[in-house]
Amino acid sequence: MSYLMNSSEILQTIEMINQQHLDVRTITMGINLLDCAHEDMSVCCDRIYDKICRSAGKLVETGCAIEQEFGIPIVNKRISVTPISLVAASCREENYTALAKTLDRAAASTGVNFIGGFSALAHKGFTESDLRLINSIPEALTSTNLVCSSVNLASTRAGINMDAVALMGRIIRQTADIDPMGCAKLVVFSNAVEDNPFMAGAFHGVGEPEKVINVGVSGPGVVAAALKQCKGESFDVVAETIKKTAFKITRMGELVAQEASRRLGVPFGVVDLSLAPTPAIGDSVAEILELMGLERCGGHGTTAALALLNDAVKKGGVMASSHVGGLSGAFIPVSEDAGMIAAVENGALCLDKLEAMTCVCSVGLDMIAVPGDTPASTISAIIADEAAIGMVNNKTTAVRIIPVKGKGVGEGIDFGGLLGSAPIMPVHKGSAEEFIARGGRIPAPLHSLRN
Amino acid sequence: MKAIVSVFAKDSKGITAYVTALLAEKEINILDISQTLMQEYFAMIMLVDLSDCAMPFHELSQYLADKGLERALDVHIQRQDIFEAMHRI
């Protein structure tokens, strides 16, 4: 008998799953679509649909079987594909909505709950295809249900494409004016990663293999439960406790990832060590920060608490997995975290503090609802600020912002399900119109002379 | 394949007998067993060997859960790998 049964360990695992919301947040299959390119868009669409269905036909079934055998919930099964602006570059059509609809159909056929990759990489400049894709986003995201879109518009090596920043501000406004839900499926990045399993920003990068399985773990509730046991202890104890907990969570993700990879015959890519909250009570990153001794998430001390949390999760997780990647950092989406929502509602958490928090964690201003009359230039300026943090600090940052048509501060929007609900947050009134109208590129930062 | 069967319930007579009989009926061998009482709650954990069990895992899992419910028992079966992965380096 290789395994020596230890009841207290078994009870601890069962308690993590049953009471502390421990789950595997997502198994995401990355699929290369470059071989689907064709100048006739309908042929390209057919090839894409066939390839996705052929590659991921058993993904959901396999995920469910693993879920049952290990007794661990796998909340989402998803697909990421090669950025469509690359796949469709040889098509002559101006509008890429048909491609989004094809992805939507393929996602529905395979039973996954999101498909990511209606994306463009435009950090240094636009190709014609990038522009066609971006201009199709409002229609594409509001006429499909399962398609997620992302645009990378800055990087540490290329700087910030301010033309893309300006354009994306307008695209976000246009999308929101048709349906705010569309903006919940759209994210703009600085330093986007090629192997992120989480939505809305997942795409299958060009450096990735033909197919790959990436897994995202979760578990804020488990970390919170562990921290409740160390009230009043020093930060050394807090960091150690989070590391040990993160190790356990990640080991489980690694096991699921290896098993899924083996059963599907698809290579294992990475485990993404992100602490992803859900709207459920007790599954909140904000609660963890408050357990460290803050009265409210968003108050002074929040950034330091988050920095410790983010680093300890990585340190614990890195040893638990053979390959770590993706975004790997604590997420702070407002609408998907009950503690964040409460902090915004009672005025403790504002956009400026969230921006500061993104300097020390993954991934950025995420699922933020703002008034419907927020000018496109202000949205662009918010994006520029986040992109600058990512660019200068050599990290991924993102913005997923939702201007809610006809609503203002004090009201909210309900997205339903894992996306939760968001209170509308105030933005600064000063105009950035002239700033954004300049266009061009903000040069890449210097990365020597570090003193 | 080895698995962990866990049983949670309000304590009453014959829980162990009932669950072990279910396992025996499906040709499941018990390798190790431990039970504790937490206040008036009964918790039993068994390491079992499924090599001779003909029933597919997902059906067995459902069968044990349903049979457990008849006696107000919370019965789960999970592959042991998850516990090993989480707690052993």
Describe this structure in words.
The complex is a heterodimer of chains A (451) and B (89). With 451 residues, chain A is of the alpha/beta class. Chain A has helices at 7-19, 41-56, 59-70, 84-87, 97-110, 128-142, 162-178, 180-183, 220-228, 235-264, 285-291, 302-318, 338-345, 351-357, 376-393, 433-437, and strands at 24-31, 74-81, 114-121, 147-155, 159-161, 186-190, 211-217, 268-272, 324-325, 364-371, 397-404, 412-414, 421-423, 441-442. Chain A has two domains: 26-190, Anaerobic Ribonucleotide-triphosphate Reductase Large Chain, CATH 3.20.70.20; 217-435, Anaerobic Ribonucleotide-triphosphate Reductase Large Chain, CATH 3.20.70.20. In chain A, the strands form two sheets. In chain A, strands 1, 2, 3, 4, 5, 6, 7, 8, 9, 10, 11 and 14 form a twelve-stranded mixed sheet that branches. In chain A, helix 5 crosses helix 6 and helix 9 packs antiparallel against helix 10 (235-264). The mean pLDDT of chain A is 93. Chain B has 89 residues and is an alpha+beta fold. Chain B has one domain (2-87): 2-Layer Sandwich (Alpha-Beta Plaits). Chain B is built from three helices and four strands. The longest helix of chain B has 14 residues, at 57-70. Chain B is globular, with a radius of gyration of 13 Å. In chain B, 30% of the residues are buried. The model of chain B has no long low-confidence stretch (mean pLDDT 92). Chain A binds chain B through residues 1, 3, 5-7, 9-14, 65, 68-72, 248, 251-252, 254-255, and chain B through 2, 4, 6, 31-32, 34, 36, 43, 45, 47, 57-58, 61, 76-87.
